[in-house]
Design brief:
It is built from 23 helices and 21 strands. By secondary structure, the protein is an alpha/beta fold. Bound molecules: pyridoxal-5'-phosphate. The site of pyridoxal-5'-phosphate has 16 residues, from helix 12.
Length: 662
């Protein structure tokens, strides 16, 4: 293995600061002395888990990459710290209400995630929120009677009846009215079902959030009742003699609110509405502040879209104090507080591990020697490279770019040889590389020159699909922290963009949490032939898994659920190993029947055998090869042709899952 000696002074701490690990990893992730990334899942309570060791362990069990690791202890810790932050803020302010949060399962509906959250939240009576019929089906079964079950989202009759069914089971189901028509429907169906509904009202605030989702509130928002609609609802409820059924006022100003001031403003507006409705005689018990609690993906603690300028502690204190202040002014009781944080609970606990298995170099290694007969343009670019210095970047860039387009034109017209065309392209690459080296030393590098300096950056090919595992990176340019999980004792020699294995040119990551400038690339180590190089894509526990799609038919990735346990070697055990989808399963997702496909290929083989083009034994071999792939993992297998068949892997995984929990 390449080692750090060539770079002498480099230390694992240098890597930690290079990748801004403290900024985004909180206290959950760190670098050990051997250069391995570690997960401190219980934050100081128990030892750290060596993430590289976990991956080696996974691979040795026949599970192929990419793999998603869930650190269940981190998930539990998020639930505890959210609840405790509120408990602390409440006691410090001598606030009169309680905190009764809920987890909106849309953020990550995986059963094991919801179960873990419900279990960790039990001491706090932490509840669940559903936004659709499907989610409500899960939530009604999973939730406890003494925590809240909140139903948001647009509802049809069947969904409201389902919520009322929950009430009959003893669950504390609050149906939040999102639009005026839902109220009449709820009152009518409750009468028909003979139950007393628990009603919530969602206010459409004027205050907008900040960041990507700021249009979730304000005039044109999709959900919620405007002030006149709230007053109309009040009258409708009074007319139905159901004022005593209204328990909760809800608002949600969008996800990933980057600025604490926006949160305070929204809470202030909502608290004021709560107070006024309370004074009008609505016995509201709860103020539900929705989601929006952000995650510091880029670790900058700023109001950039991928960050937040506040901590969880500050968030809790702001909510509590703002509500208290308004209630004191308005002389109304302080309500119990609800939040629906999803992102902040789930983002940290999972990481996707991918192997980088090929670098697409920015420059070409083919030797193109200088010859006396080479074209004018070639000679000119050679000279430009020789003479390039930090003071003349812009004029040199313009001349070189001109030479390049001139050469293109000449080639099309037949006046440039293929060899000279190759030289021009290669020299252009060299020129841009030198530009990239000099640009940081030059003052006021023009934008286009800076952009060009980045353009031929190395690209590392990574075994994953952006569309499956990181949909928000593609859809909304969300930044996720990415860092090698080993070799951190060694100074990274390259800066590169990452490309995935889909055939979509959008399957590319060029913005990185640790790079201050867009296009500056991710610091990475040289690949060593025959040795794996693993990258971790962090903070992917919120929204990514279930929004991902099977673009290019790559399918759901394998995952392992890790618990820390000091009493076992390595300090962890696998609670569960869930193999990713097989080729057969992704094909079936888009309506292909494996039987039919095999039948069609068999018919083609049979025809070739009948025609004497294939021997029967060759035909049989082709068929067995085709059929075997049905059970394989759709991702790349850089180890070469699959030696072990997938079915064997699944069996190994199943036996691990059965035996893993001590
Ligand atoms: C999406 C959503 C949430 C979760 O928001 P986060 O920012 O992930 O915490 C909460 N409440 C409602 C109504 C939502 O639509």
């Amino acid at each position: 293995m390449a080692n750090g000696s060539a770079h002498g002074a480099w230390s694992p701490e240098d890597s930690a600061s290079l990748y801004n690990l403290k900024g985004w990893g909180g206290k959950y992730f760190g670098v050990a002395g051997d250069g391995h990334l570690v997960a401190q899942t219980r934050r100081g309570v128990e030892g750290a888990i060596d993430v590289k060791r976990v991956v080696d362990d996974v691979v040795s069990r026949g599970i192929k990459l990419p793999v998603l690791i869930r650190f269940q202890d981190i998930l539990r810790h998020r639930v505890e710290i959210l609840n405790e932050s509120f408990t602390k803020a409440i006691s410090q302010s001598q606030y009169q209400g309680k905190f009764l949060g809920v987890y909106p399962i849309k953020v990550n509906q995986l059963r094991e995630v919801v179960e873990e959250i419900a279990d960790a939240g039990e001491p706090y009576r932490f509840g669940l929120e559903a936004g659709s019929k499907g989610e409500l089906m899960a939530v009604l079964a999973m939730n406890a009677n003494d925590s809240l079950t909140i139903v948001n989202g647009y509802k049809d009759e069947a969904m409201i009846r389902l919520a009322l069914l929950g009430l009959k089971l003893g669950r504390r189901v609050i149906v939040v009215v999102e639009k005026p028509q839902e109220l009449g429907m709820l009152l009518r169906l409750a009468r028909e079902e003979g139950v007393k509904p628990l009603i919530g009202l969602r206010a459409k605030l004027q205050t907008q959030g900040t960041g990507k989702w700021k249009y979730s509130a304000g005039h044109s928002a999709k959900f919620g009742l405007t002030t006149p609609e709230l007053l109309a609802a009040f009258e409708e409820i009074r007319a139905a003699s159901a004022l005593d059924r209204v328990q909760l006022l809800h608002f949600h100003i969008g996800s990933q609110v980057t600025d604490i001031q926006a949160i305070k403003d929204a809470v202030k507006e909502a608290a004021r509405i709560y107070a006024k409705l309370r004074q009008k005689g609505l016995p509201l018990e709860f103020l539900d502040c929705g989601g929006g609690l952000g995650v510091d993906y880029d670790g900058t603690h700023t109001t950039s879209d991928a960050s937040t300028n506040y901590t969880l502690k500050e968030y809790a204190a702001s909510v509590v104090q703002t509500v208290q202040e308004v209630c004191r002014q308005e002389k109304v009781p302080e309500p119990d507080l609800v939040t629906e944080s999803g992102r902040s609970l789930t983002a940290h606990h999972s990481v996707v591990i991918v192997n980088a298995f090929g670098a697409v170099a920015g420059t070409c290694g083919f030797p193109l020697k200088e010859t006396p007969d080479e074209a004018e343009g070639v000679k000119a670019i050679r000279k430009l490279i020789r003479d390039l210095d930090a003071k003349t970047l812009a004029p040199a860039y313009h001349e070189a770019a001109g030479r390049l387009s001139e050469a293109e034109a000449l080639f099309k017209l037949g006046f440039l040889s293929l060899e000279d065309k190759a030289k021009i392209e290669a020299l252009w690459g060299e020129f841009v590389e030198k530009l990239g080296e000099l640009a940081p030393r030059s003052k006021n590098t023009p934008e286009e020159v800076a952009a060009a300096a980045q353009s031929l950056r190395d690209q590392y090919l990574c075994n994953f699909s952006l569309f499956q595992s990181l949909p928000d990176s593609w859809a909304i340019g969300q930044v996720f922290p990415i860092i090698p999980i080993h070799r951190l004792e060694e100074q990274p020699a390259k800066r590169a963009a990452l490309i995935d294995i889909t055939c979509d040119s959008d399957g590319k990551i060029t913005r990185f949490a640790c790079a201050k400038r867009a296009g500056a690339g991710l610091p990475l180590h040289d690949l060593v032939p025959g040795e794996p190089y693993y990258l971790g894509i962090f903070l992917v526990g919120a929204y990514q898994a279930t929004m991902g799609d099977i673009h290019n038919l790559f399918g759901r990735v394998s995952e392992v659920h890790v618990f820390s346990d000091r009493s076992v070697p390595g300090g962890y055990y696998f609670d569960k190993i869930i193999p990713g989808q097989t080729v057969r399963q992704v094909l079936s997702d888009v309506q292909y029947s494996d039987v039919e496909l095999v039948g069609k290929v068999r018919a083609a083989v049979d025809a070739r055998v009948r025609a004497g083009e294939l021997k029967p034994s060759e035909g049989a071999e082709l068929m067995s090869r085709y059929e075997a792939i049905m059970d394989e993992y759709p991702y790349f297998d850089p180890g070469g042709p699959a030696a072990k068949r997938r079915s064997g892997d699944v069996k190994a995984a199943a036996s691990v899952a059965a035996s893993a929990k001590p």
